[in-house]
Each structure stands twice: as structure tokens, then as C-alpha cells.
Design brief:
Layout: E1 3-5, H1 7-10, H2 20-28, E2 33-36, H3 37-49, H4 54-69, E3 74-75, H5 79-93, H6 103-113, E4 116-118, H7 122-125, E5 132-133
Parallel strand pairs: 1-2, 1-4, 2-3, 4-5
Helix pairs in contact: 3-4, 5-6
């Protein structure tokens, strides 16, 4: 099984006291992990919001390392994923269900590549037709 890892799971490794089980899960499954360009954008946004200094530098170094480590496993939101997004949201619209724009990109990317979304925020994906895994449980 392969996984599309949400920002909140990768960023756990930056905490002063990261959840040991989550870090262990990431290490054990490293060869099966994928990341979305959306996650890179979210991390970059967070870096840009930090003031100049040690913490910002640490985050920037981590993002550079993540890009290098995940090279070859970074998935873009492309035309096929856009079609999956439109189909998924159209079906959800008929039920009166909305998904955030970010999750509306991550979910169809996972669907398109037949990946399980790894996230702490299960409720954000509960209405999306994706498999989920929460390594925090």
C-alpha cells in the first residue's frame, strides 16, 4: 500500500517532542510515501509567515531536505486530478457537502494515484471517497 501524506503528518517531525509512533510510522513506510505539491505550498507559506531568524532557517532547511528526500515521489495536481476533483465535488454538491479547497486537491490526487491519505484530520476527508489512515491513533 502506498500513501499520500498530509502536511500535518510530515510537520510532526519538526515539533520539539514529536509523536514517536508517527515518526516511527514515517520511517517504516518511507519507500511507500508520496507528497503533494500542495503540501510543499502549505509548508512554504508557513515559512514565509515566520520572522527572519533561526526557526525560519530551520523550517527552510527542512523543506529543502524534504524536497530532496521525496524527489520522485512528489505529485502535482494535474489535468487528470482536476477531472477527479470535479467529479468528486460534483457528487458531493448533490448531497450539499463541501470540502475545503486544499483537501479538494489532496483527495483527488490520492484517488487518481490510488493512494491512502495519511492525515490527523480525518473529519476533513470523511465525505471524500478516499481511504484514510491516521498514524496518531
Amino acid at each position: 500500500m502506498s500513501y499520500l501524506v498530509d502536511t500535518n503528518v510530515f510537520s510532526e517531525t519538526l515539533k520539539p517532542r514529536p509523536d514517536a509512533e508517527v515518526v516511527e510510522w514515517l520511517v517504516e513506510n518511507e519507500s511507500e510515501l508520496f507528497i503533494s505539491t500542495l503540501t510543499i505550498a502549505e509548508i512554504r507559506r508557513d515559512i514565509e509567515r515566520l520572522p527572519q531568524g533561526k526557526r525560519r532557517d530551520q523550517f527552510q532547511q527542512w523543506l529543502t531536505s524534504l524536497n530532496s528526500t521525496m524527489d520522485g515521489s512528489i505529485l502535482s495536481f494535474n489535468r487528470a486530478a482536476a477531472h477527479s476533483r470535479g467529479q468528486m465535488q460534483g457528487q458531493l454538491d448533490l448531497k450539499g457537502i463541501r470540502i475545503s479547497p486544499s483537501d479538494g486537491i489532496l483527495a483527488p490526487t490520492a484517488i487518481r494515484h490510488v493512494l491512502t491519505v495519511v492525515t490527523r484530520n480525518e473529519r476533513d476527508f470523511k465525505d471524500a471517497p478516499v481511504r484514510m489512515l491516521n498514524p496518531f491513533r
